[in-house]
Amino acid sequence: MDVANSEPVTEVPPKRPRGRPRISDDEKRRRGTFQLSRARDFVPAKAEEGRIKIEPDPEAKQDYVAVALRYMDDVESGAIITNKWVKLAVARQRRDMERADWEFAFSPFFAAKACAFLEQLPHIEGRWGSVTIHLEPWQCFLVCVLFGWRHRSDSWRRRFTILYLELGRKNAKSTLIAGMALYHLLREDETGAQVICAATTGSQARIVFNIAAQMVRRSGWLRMQGAIPMAHAILCQDGSMKPINAKASSQDGLNPSVIILDESHAQNFQLYNVLKSAQGSRDNSLLLCPTTAGYNLLSVGYSMRSTVQKILQGVFQTEHYLGLIYAIDEGDDWKNELVWPKANPMLGITPKLDKFRQDFIDAEQTPANEPEFRTKALSEWLNSAFTWLPMQKWDACADPSCLLERFVGPECCIGGDLSQNDDIAAVAYSFLIDGLLWACVDMYLPEDVVKERAEKVPELLYWVKAGVLKLTPGNMIDYDMIEADVVANAKRFKVKDAAFDQYGSIQIVGSLFNKHGLPARIENKNASSFTPPSKDLETRVKHHRFRHAGNLALRWQASNVVVDRRVDGSILPKKENAESPNKIDAVDAIIRSISGWIRGAKAVDKQYQMVIIG
Questions:
Q1: How far apart are CA 267 and CA 246, in angstroms?
Q2: Which residues contact 389 (CB under 8 A, 6 or more apart)?
Q3: CATH 3.30.420.240 residue ranges in the chain?
Q4: Which residues, including other chains, have CB under 8 Å from residue 155's CB and lie 6 or more apart?
Q5: What is the pLDDT of residue 304?
Q6: pTM of the model
């Protein structure tokens, strides 16, 4: 270019804009980064009663209650692939919504309020189709149920104070729980709110806490409402959220309004009991226990899972307990893709289906990886056993008229399981009438151990009050009381056989035989002696040829029985774990009573005596 011949520049070029283009307030709201104080039309609000008015929540992005109801419809119709526990949870919700004149009421307002808050929170990990959280139908259902049910007399109080949530890993459960924690801090008007993220280790305790802290850092509107993220706490007006490990949890000063036991399959009862006792003064407390499946059958998680199953089956009537179990069903082929959504309601969104298939291939081709995949991805508790007697079949055999008072004169076989001297003991009386086996069971428990046992099985207190459990004085079983009851009952019918277990029964068996002339004997529990009567009970329950009174304590024990099936065809009913608090003594007693019918026992000739040596 010829510089000499060029014309001189007479106009000053316009200034180039400096920095990034300004983002509109609407776009900032969509991203979750909007700060009210920096809005173009912001006018500071005046203080009112010591508090600053904050911008109201944006309008709800969807009709959350309608989404939840549609999810229930799809579960019931089979349009959504899910397991029997989710179906039972939906059925429970449907029944509750139809109940009238009840102490609880469902509030669409509170349900939608919680959902709308959660959908304002930002994603903090991974790649998503939106900047903020979008609740999937199953999440709308869960949040609406948890926060929508209120006490009719005081709508500030939630109905549910415990949530057990089980599903496969990478289904965004920690993100959901973190959002619930922030909602409690900022929206539930709890004075001095304390959210405790607890675990046996500090790193585990920080998982949900770190997600919540990141949400606050990325959301100006949360900070405008008083949330202050710090290294070891989130402060909010007069409330806080902090992680805490097992060692620190024993310190004084804890008064949590919300407890989060993330991955409760790995938590022990020592930590659980300390935190629950510290929560006692809160009127609107909440315990959140999200988890995958695990291997420890003595963990808090597995105990809660068992409780939820019994609530959904109708064994327990526990109105404050909410549970949702996403897992493959018993008998499902874990290699079948069609059952995977049962444990992974977010499958396709998170985790991605192609990644899930890769993990499956690794598990299939490398046997060492199979247990981890089935446990963590498909929610199988591989160390657990499945219930022996189907509860639907058991319930069909219930007859309220099956009371001991109605049986006068017929032949009877007695079975007893006296167990340990400070635990539940049971005596069963069975009658065979017109092909039906009727069983009546008396259960005994030392009075002084009720409170201790109720820490793990709270329903014991209800059963004691209802008269289903007979209390014996002191802290040990009163065998004299049991003997007196057996002798008194035996006068009303002809006793063909009376079989008792080998533990704690020597004296009572000797007295019944020698002093009262009853055909009492000791029967060891093993596969050889228990297989015939156990198979008889199994068949009778299956084909509706068994009758029981239907009391919930007996139903609880029936639901606890698992069975060890041997290669020779023999079976042995037992507890799922020797240390489990879930008892089966009453069922053992029924089985022993059935053994008398199978043996064809006859009344003992009184010319013989039983002699106890030692």
A1: 9
A2: 537, 538, 541, 558, 559, 561
A3: 391-599
A4: 105, 107, 110
A5: 92
A6: 0.68
Class of the CATH domain delimited by 64-377:
alpha beta
pLDDT of residue 210: 95
pLDDT more than 90, % of the chain: 55
Here the tokens at position 567 are: 């290669």
**Which helix (DSSP H) or strand (DSSP E) does residue 218 occupy?**
helix 202-218
The candidate with the shortest Cα–Cα distance to 234, out of 187, 197, 203, 270, is: 197
Instruction: For residue 52, give the H/E element and its range.
Output: strand 51-52
The residue written with tokens 């055999």 in the block is 397
The Cα-based distances of 331 to 34, 328, 334, 339, 455 in angstroms read 50, 9, 9, 11, 33
Residue among 225, 140, 149 nearest 182 (CA): 225
Amino acid 172 reads: A
Q: Which of 22-31, 305-314, 408-417, 439-448 has the lowest mean pLDDT?
A: 22-31
* Bridge partners, residue 227, by sequence: 236
* Alpha-carbon dihedral sign for residues 401, 404, 410, 415: positive
Q: Are 326 and 333 in contact (CB under 8 A)?
A: no
Q: Is the pLDDT of residue 59 over 80?
A: no
**Strand stretches in 214-346, DSSP E:** 227-229, 234-236, 239-245, 258-261, 286-291, 321-325
Query: CA 159, CA 174: separation in Å to the nearest integer?
Result: 23
Q: Is 428 left (phi over 0), alpha (psi -120 to 50) or beta?
A: beta
3-state secondary structure 61-124: CCCHHHHHHHHHHHHHHCCCCCCHHHHHHHHHHHHHHHCCCCCEEECHHHHHHHHHHHCCCECC
- Give the Cα separation of 212 and 217 in Å (integer): 9
pLDDT per residue as tens digits for the range 217-241:
999 999 999 999 999 999 988 899 9
- Terminal C-alpha separation, the chain: 123
Q: Does pLDDT of 328 surpass 70?
A: yes
Cα separation, 548 vs 413, in Å, equals: 15
Residue with tokens 């939106």: 130
> Is 444 in contact with 470 (CB distance < 8 Å)?
yes
Using CA atoms, how far apart are residues 323 and 309, in angstroms rounded to an integer? 8
Of 313, 245, 260, the C-alpha closest to 291 is 260
Q: What is the amino acid identity at position 596?
A: G
Rounded to the nearest 5°, which phi and psi values hold at 20? -80, 150
Which of 588, 440, 437, 578 minimizes the C-alpha distance to 505?
Answer: 588
Look at the domain 391-599 and name its fold.
Nucleotidyltransferase; domain 5 (3.30.420)
Model pLDDT for residues 81-128, shown as the tens digit of each residue = 999 999 999 999 999 999 988 999 999 999 999 999 999 999 988 777
Peptide bond connecting 351 to the previous residue in cis, omega within 30 degrees of 0: yes
Nearest to 316 by CA among 493, 138, 458: 458
- Region(s) of the chain under CATH 3.40.50.300: 64-377
Considering only CA atoms, give the Rg of the chain: 31
Cβ atoms 433, 493 nearer than 8 A: no
Q: 438 forms bridges with which residues in the sheet?
A: 431, 547
C-alpha torsion angle, residues 391, 393, 394, 396 (rounded to 10): 120
